[in-house]
Amino acid sequence: DSKDVPGSPFDVDVFKINLAAIQVKGLEKPIPLGQTRKISIITKDVGKSDLPCKVTVTTPSGATADLPTEQSPEGYDCNFTPKEPGEHKVKVEYAAKEVPKSPFTVAVEVSDIQPSKVGKPLEQTRELDSILIYCQVNRKFSNKC
Q1: Which residues are registered as beta bridge partners of 82?
Q2: CA atoms within a 13 Å half-sphere pointing along the CA-CB vector of 123
Q3: What does the pLDDT average to over 7-29?
């Protein structure tokens, strides 16, 4: 039948997307248990940088969670705060397609020093027999020597 479809003709946008140009940053190093890590999905060079992005984490025990993403000038950002030690899988999808090298594996390690235990620098000034002594203690902890 040669009848027109209501609302036609339709405009369709067609984009070539280069998934291989997507970069995922923030998963290169182990994450201390309970510490929030920003994960950046760089989509600025894929052809269309504002298509839907989905990040799903699978814990060592098999639980999954979608991380909320927010658009950034370079693509998308999300935050991951692990609650379980061990290897986590991070699956990244862009425009409903899994990006190359996904899922990414990131280690979550138990740390003796939690970020909440590290405070502001300690400063103290004392005057002894006309000599001014100023001391600042700023301790930064790292598991690397």
Answers
A1: none
A2: 3
A3: 88
Q: φ, ψ for residue 49 (rounded to 5)?
A: -95, 0
pLDDT tens column, 29-60: 999 999 999 999 999 999 888 899 999 999 99
For the cut 70, the answer to whether the pLDDT of residue 9 exceeds it is yes
ω into 103 cis (within 30 of 0): yes
Q: How far apart are CA 143 and CA 30, in angstroms?
A: 11
Exposure on the CB side of residue 96, measured as CA atoms within 13 A: 0
User: Mean per-residue pLDDT for 123-128?
Assistant: 51
In a 3-state reduction of DSSP, which class is residue 115?
helix
Instruction: State the Cα angle at 103 between 70 and 101, rounded to 5°.
Output: 100
Residue type, 92: V
Rounded Cα–Cα distance for residues 66 and 104 (Å): 14
